[in-house]
Write a structure and sequence with these properties.
Cupin; QDO-like; six-stranded antiparallel β-sheet; four-stranded antiparallel β-sheet
Length: 188
């Protein structure tokens, strides 16, 4: 069964009566994961809770400078919506500082990167579709430095993260350089 309008996807629920099956997550719920640097991840909707339709995380970055190297995903789109602070974002062509209310959509295969160079906390929503088990990726990043080059490359491929240099993944040094350059321009 499908709707008469071609603008709608295939029917996902085919019963005549609705169900009581919504989920509510109150404000103040503790984060699902706290990274070693203190950044927090709230897994608002996961692949499991949405039957693979999408994933939605609320990420709160500390003021620590860092982020990812440019990369792309083969199985999903990804979107960022900035709630507070400033996130340094690469859209495949240029870097820019995104702030409250800014939004970036990245289709599958779209090169992108993001991080914090402001030295101040920042918060954003991360939406990816279809849903993937990204929890293991973010929680596993703490162990990347201890991995061999082969283990690191396998970790990134397993989590659909394809970097320019698959042996490096997230690069901290270049983020420090970006922050220093940004600071020098702001003080002129």
């Amino acid at each position: 069964m499908s709707f008469l309008s071609p603008d709608y996807p295939e029917v996902l629920y085919d019963q005549d009566e609705g169900e009581v099956n919504a989920s509510f997550r109150p404000a103040g719920t503790p984060p699902d994961y706290v990274a070693p640097n203190g950044s927090t991840f709230h897994y608002l909707s996961t692949r499991l809770s949405t039957n693979g339709l999408y994933g939605l995380y609320q990420n709160r970055l500390t003021g620590q400078i860092g982020g990812t190297s440019p990369h792309f995903h083969k199985t999903m789109s990804e979107s960022f919506y900035i709630l507070s602070g400033e996130i340094h974002i690469f859209d495949g062509e240029r870097w820019f500082d995104a702030s409250r209310g800014d939004y970036l959509y990245i289709p599958p295969g779209g090169v992108h990167s993001f991080g914090n160079i402001s030295g101040e906390p920042a918060e954003f929503l991360m939406l990816f579709s279809p849903g993937a088990a990204r929890e293991g990726y973010f929680e596993g990043l703490a162990d990347v430095a201890a991995m061999t080059e082969e283990e690191r490359a396998a970790f990134f491929v397993r989590h659909d993260s394809f970097f320019t240099d698959m042996t490096k993944g997230p690069a901290a040094d270049s983020w420090q350089d970006r922050a220093a350059l940004r600071k020098s321009f702001k003080t002129r």
